[in-house]
Design a protein that fits this description.
By secondary structure, the protein is mainly beta. The protein is built from two helices and 13 strands, in the order E-E-H-E-E-E-E-E-E-E-E-E-H-E-E.
Length: 146
């Protein structure tokens, strides 16, 4: 495959890479180009996590460590989600789980009712808004996979 610069992700645009994306990874551009041009499956990995913007090494690849650059080969298949119908659908219970708002602020769930959760100190959030405006700390939607 020919090296395509539009498929290179850096710490600046790392948030655009979806968890589960497959591609090549490296810490410098020269090494990344070599790995892509080698077509070797040895350097092909799946993004497990994207770290915060304050870090240079933002891409976590399964079974490896953090890297600064990522070359996208394949995006993950889109999963469909819906909002939770009630807090009983939230895996492992809702209490003391961390959610992240769309503007990257973290909240701890400190109380639950049937159709809403309390994000201290933000306040009560219904389950539809939890789905629309928040994700779990690992980047997964706050909803049920259909």
């Amino acid at each position: 495959m020919e090296f395509d610069e539009s498929k290179v992700y850096t710490p600046i645009n790392a948030d655009k890479v979806k968890i589960g994306s497959k591609g090549y990874y490296a810490d410098d551009l020269k090494t990344l180009k070599e790995r892509v041009n080698s077509h070797s499956g040895r350097w092909l990995g799946e993004v497990d996590k994207i770290y915060d913007t304050g870090l240079t090494y933002r891409f976590a690849i399964k079974n490896n460590t953090k890297f600064a650059l990522f070359y996208l080969v394949e995006e993950p298949e889109e999963k469909k989600y819906r909002p939770y119908h009630n807090t009983a659908e939230i895996p492992d219970g809702a209490m003391l789980n961390i959610v992240v708002s769309s503007d990257n602020i973290r909240f701890l769930i400190t109380a639950v009712e049937d159709k809403r959760v309390y994000l201290g100190p933000h306040g009560w959030v219904d389950l539809y808004d939890l789905y629309e405006y928040y994700t779990w700390s690992n980047g997964a939607p706050c909803g049920v996979e259909e």
